[in-house]
Amino acid sequence: MTPETRNGMLLRTIEWIPDRGGTLVPGRVRFIDQTLLPQELKFVETRSAQEMAEAIRALRVRGAPAIGIAGAMGAALAAQAAGGDAAAVLNALERAAENLQRTRPTAVNLAWALDRIRRRAREAAQAGVDAGDLKARVAAEATAIRDEDARMCRAIGEHGVHLLRDGCRVLTHCNAGSLATAEYGTALAPVYVARERGWNIHVFADETRPHLQGARLTAWELQANGVPVTLICDNMAAAAMRDKAVSAVLVGADRIAANGDVANKIGTYGLALLARSHRIPFYVLAPTSTFDSRTLSGADIPIEQRAGEEVVNIHGRSVAPPGVDVWAPIFDVTPAELVTAFVCERGILRPPFSESIRRVLS
Ligand code: MRU
């Protein structure tokens, strides 16, 4: 199918749709079901926190910032659906937040957004607001998280474009684009800003096994935005770096520890090693909501393991003998020493990262 754009930018990955103008509640959440791309662009609407949790678990909404937004909106849906007084609404929100938190462990944005929405709800309850007001305040907080993410990603693009030059070729992994965030993306944000400036940036996109986010999502959204993209299998990255004049690797992150170790899509660590070997800068682009000062190093980051079936089956067809043993972590940790620089909404962070990260988060 042909990717659709609105005003030249990809359609919104996830948003809160009020039923009536002038008030956020009652409302519903609309999101793109990313498991169906690129064959089908389908918007799903829900009023159920349980359905929102299922969408996160099944990767219908995926990408660290996007699942943070989905979590916050899911909690707001639970509050909206609750009957009774403000205490009952708060209780329903807390229970939904616990359930949403259990969906995916690695991306810290989910915990960050849920903590924020819980804090907001508790403050409102303590201030003695009524149930209707509490519902409106948490819906407003969830939409604020979305809008802030869009602004942070835009700022990442503005800072990150200084690391690129017209005519350069970059390599990326997974999807850290518009679909993974509110808008623009993280790793792809500088590419979109460069595009707006009329620069010609060529992107090599790893297909990204086992869920093919690079092939299905990154290639799709770059095409939609008129950015030249070449799709490669994951095992072609070394050859592409050497033979295709790749001048930088740009990736997103699911969690950045206090020492600068980075959890991101499985395969990122290998890319960082390849980049070091080819003397190519390796940049990690993420909003401050992805930095986790409470996680001291990569060894403390929980790595999500998925069912072996997801490795064995490609689009419903088995590609391995029945009963084969499978190892299926879907994130890995890149040590800080392989990262050239981080780009967040506040600027470019250089080593030593323990210091530059502490400064930017303080
Ligand atoms: O399993 P996914 O698709 O949620 O993994 C996504 C990634 O690993 C992204 O690189 C990361 O979340 C950054 S998205 C801006």
Summarize the structure in words.
This protein has 362 residues and is of the alpha/beta class. The protein has eleven helices and 18 strands. The protein has a seven-stranded mixed sheet, with helices on both faces. A four-stranded mixed sheet has the order 13-10-11-16, covered by helices on one side. It has a three-stranded antiparallel sheet with strand order 3-4-5, covered by helices on one side. The model has no long low-confidence stretch (mean pLDDT 96). Bound molecules: 5-S-methyl-1-O-phosphono-5-thio-D-ribulose. Residues 59, 62-65, 107, 174, 176, 180-181, 185-186, 213, 252-254, 264-265, 330 line the site of 5-S-methyl-1-O-phosphono-5-thio-D-ribulose.
Count of distinct strands: 18
Ligand types: 5-S-methyl-1-O-phosphono-5-thio-D-ribulose
Shape: globular
| Strands ordered across the widest β-sheet | 8-7-6-9-12-17-18
Main sheet specs: 7 strands, mixed
Number of helices: 11
In helices, the fraction of residues equals 25-40%
SSE sequence, one letter per element: EEEEEHHHHHEHEHEHEEEHEEHEEEEEH
Percent of sequence in beta strands: 15-25%
Mean pLDDT: 96
**Cα distance, first to last residue?**
46 Å
